[in-house]
Amino acid sequence: MSGLRSFVARRLLLGAAQTLAVVLLVFALTEALPGDAAVALAGDQPDPARIAAIREALDLGRPAYERFAEWVTGLVHGDLGTSLTSGRPVTRYIAEGFGPTLLLAALTLTLLVPLGFGLGVLAARHEGRLADRLVSSVTLAVYAVPEFALGVLLVTVLALKLAWLPPTAVGYGTDLLAHPAALVLPVLVLLSRPVCSLSRLVRAGMVDALAAPYAVHARRYGVPGARVRYAHALPNALAPAVQQLARTVDWLLCGVIVVEALFVIPGLGTVLLNAVAERDVPVVQGLAVVFGVLTVVLNLGADLVAHRLTPRAGVTA
Fold first, then answer.
1. Is residue 40 within 8 Å of 33, Cβ to Cβ?
2. pTM score of the predicted model
3. Least confident segment among 27-36, 125-134, 223-232
């Protein structure tokens, strides 16, 4: 237990340091933008009154360290700032966009876990045979196709040619659960690459575990093959799979900008694209911090779960 507590304490301290680094990096990158930030935000034909208003809103006349301290204080209290274009709190933008993004992530994960583990176990069970070669070849081929290209292909075939599904989510608003047909194509695109990487990872872990001495001895002593696979070999493949799942959840919540833009999903990716197009720095900063903190928290949780599954990993951590 002392080793586990020490590992958790180290990881929590590392997570806190990473979170602070994310906040500092986001602010520093914003400060490093070339030129006058107020003039750049004012547009191609800046109005002096608008420039003055932006400069006042961003407190550009104050030293950077004072603005950073005030911004961090606001972050600690849950205040991510106010949009320059609408005057609305940044938290409102994030709350509105989080629902569709979370729905896509939840549906993708619901399909990803059984498909990824099932294909990985199937390939490992038939190592070197037709099923293994077929799963490995198909997953490698699908993984090589970029999400944007796959999305365009699916829209062209299933939506435009066959008219089976709507090509985008335009007109459905944020209540996408009431229009499940609009979710099919985005979920298929989001599912394509993670299921390939997860299944190949599970296969590799299962093959190594099934070739380990304890699995060989278990089969030699008459332990049923299903028990060897699922009670002994599969748990040893879970640690890297959990870390892969954490990276996938991080990508689903923070990196689905291309898919949301392609299918016009009003999620966090669309909010970020709109903020960048409108040069709305507070919204971009707020989203960057949220994305960074989510990444740190998810990877921290994955490290803790992986350590719990394979405690010996903590010795070298």
1. yes
2. 0.78
3. 27-36
